[in-house]
Amino acid sequence: MAKIKPRVKVPKKAEAGEIVTIKTLISHPMESGQRKDKKTGEIIPQDIVNYFKATFNGETVFETDIDAAVSTNPYIEFTLKVPESGTVGFLWKTDNDGEFEAEKKIKVG
Fold first, then answer.
1. pTM of the model
2. Full set of structural domains in the chain with CATH
3. How big, in percent rounded to 5, are the helix, strand and coil portions of the chain?
């Protein structure tokens, strides 16, 4: 399996009250549970990113459940109204109890 790596793009600076665009992408194969291993012929178990949550200074600002219809390396984009300087936190969860996190800071000024 490829290394699972979350990537996020968050502006470093914003004005108070500004609406900014947040972009995320996680490198994940999103196994649907319908493919077979070419060597063994056995079905590869489902393993998808099934949940995503973003927080700002600890408060949830965006969350979603994800299903198997989403392609490899899920990309999520959303907007955020920035009231103050703070930290945007990101969490992805998988079927196999995998959790991946990232953080980025935004400075208001």
1. 0.88
2. 5-32+46-108 (2.60.40.10)
3. 0, 60, 40
